[in-house]
Amino acid sequence: MDVDDLTAALTEHTPDPEAVLDSLWTKRRKRARRRVLLAGGAAVVAAAAIMVWPVGTAAPGAGGTGGGASGCAVMPLQQQLAVAREEGFSVVLAKGALTGRSATGNGSAYAEMRLTDVRTLSGPETRSGSTVWVSSDRGSGGPVPGTPSGSLWAPDGSLFGIVAPSSPGDPAGPYLRVAPVVEGQVVLSTAGCWLEDGLPIRAYDGPLAEIPGSDSFRRAAQGGFQTVPLGEVQRLASR
Fold this sequence. Notes:
The protein is an alpha+beta fold and 239 residues long. Helix content is 23%, strand content 28%.
């Protein structure tokens, strides 16, 4: 049990043991849910160019659509969006392009992305022209237990995502957990830890963009890509 949390709870309330512990565990549960919601990758490399795998072509070394260790905490999309609203994060549709800037923080690396054509579905407005940080694991191996597969978005930059303040120790500025939007479908995978349970889904095998050198597409492909209709995601985000 965190001593600082316990001390804060004791000074914040009348010292009723049950009330104090209830307050403490409520804070800890909310903090844990926030960590799950913001689950992201580790290292990224920044570059202005974007790598895209061709339609119908498996990424080198892709293992098909079978599962594999991903390290993603299981939280259905509907619950992820509900937590985002509770935390006051922004849920957006936009187009994104890498700026070429990079940064590190808390042992992870980030690439900067500029957002245009932004539509805020819920939470505080995110303006077109805003910059955010996206993260990604890097390497040639398969999915690494304890880590997701990085960041992916559509070849034309179209994306859906949750914008949140950076955590202490991370680069200054908002962080974006991103999913591609292709032909009216949101593409879910271990890239960004987007997992689904309960919504209509179908497989996806088209092209996606990644941070150069991140190997995100190939590693996410080992767990498979699924799509959810954008209209359904918009409905859930605006509840």
